[in-house]
Amino acid sequence: MRDYLNSIDYILLDIDGVILDQDFDNKFWQDFVPNEYAIKNKLDRKRAKLLFQKESDKTKGSIDWYDLHYWEKKFDLDLIAIAKNYADEISLLPKSLETIKKLKKTKKIIYLTNCDPRLVRVKDEVCNFLQYADGWLSSIEINSIKENIWYWRHAVQTFQLIPQRCLFVDDNYEIVMQAKNAGISSLHAIQPTKSINDKLVLKKGSINRISDLVD
């Protein structure tokens, strides 16, 4: 892997599930937000979860699924306040920052995410990971998710990337394949949460976590 990195100038990284433990996002959307809605509207928590699940199913695969403003308007909630209330649940994946620091000695680091910029900044207040990026791009800023090839065209243009000199890592296989369609070498990270501790059987094009890049 280290020899391969000699031909790479830019390391492109997803944030949630690659740098940060995906567990926070899972709990945020499946538990914290529905629970706050239930309390505010004096609803049964199970009913509130069903309402959010129904809306999630309807919007999945669209920009609305990631857009905090959409959900805030739909359910009349302050999602940033909720995120800050549960900020102690935000955490880094093992060795993620150490790996980024090592890579940054010889590479440019770009974060590419579907996460809303406002939520990214809440997470950064806890984990201080943005300081190591030479740039970052949220799908909300350009109204196109990473599952769409246009996102990649925009990223290449914005950061003046040479696709053949880039390596991208994401925990979402569909996104990994879309990046490959854009001509970018990509790896699928298969341990997006700390709850997955054991080394898993790796298929071609996959790694456990980004620490595999330097270990």
TrEMBL record:
Lineage of the organism: Bacteria, Pseudomonadati, Pseudomonadota, Gammaproteobacteria, SAR86 cluster
Matching NCBIfam families: HAD-SF-IA-v3 (TIGR01509)
Top-level taxonomic group: Bacteria
A Pfam short name: Hydrolase
Name of this chain's protein: Methyl-accepting chemotaxis sensory transducer
